Amino acid sequence: MPRHYDSEFIQACLKRVMPPDSESIRSVAKEVGVAASTVHRWIRKAKENGTTLIEGGNKQWSSKDKFQAVLDTAHLNEAELSEYCRRNGLYAEQLQAWREACQAANGGVSPEASDLKQQVRSLQKQSAADKKELARKEAAVAETAALLVLRKKAQAIWGDPEDE
Question: What is the pTM of this model?
């Protein structure tokens, strides 16, 4: 039966294995009495949630913060990037994932917008054609109605030509 650990215990273990402390997962797991695979699972969940540990606490990164981190690190070389990650309690893989998410967000909008614009243009053309067809049919109905009225008036004045 799996054991449930409180969030404070998990956070304390994560703080030790993640930057800036970066103790080995095995040594921390052995010291606190949990399986190394459990610590790995906690790290994976923390990464998936965008949670990192920074100087004595947990920080949940907002989209704005993630984007700013991507901008701040775009021009850094590997050594500078490593320093930035240690200072901010991040992994380089997290920054790379955030960078890819930013690129996907920017690249994904344009094709969708283009498709939507094309659909709107197509619908506008169809609407214009439908309006033109409706106007033509209304004119035909009006002409037919006028002919029927004239026919009735002619019958009233001169009588029904079939009767003669």
Answer: 0.36
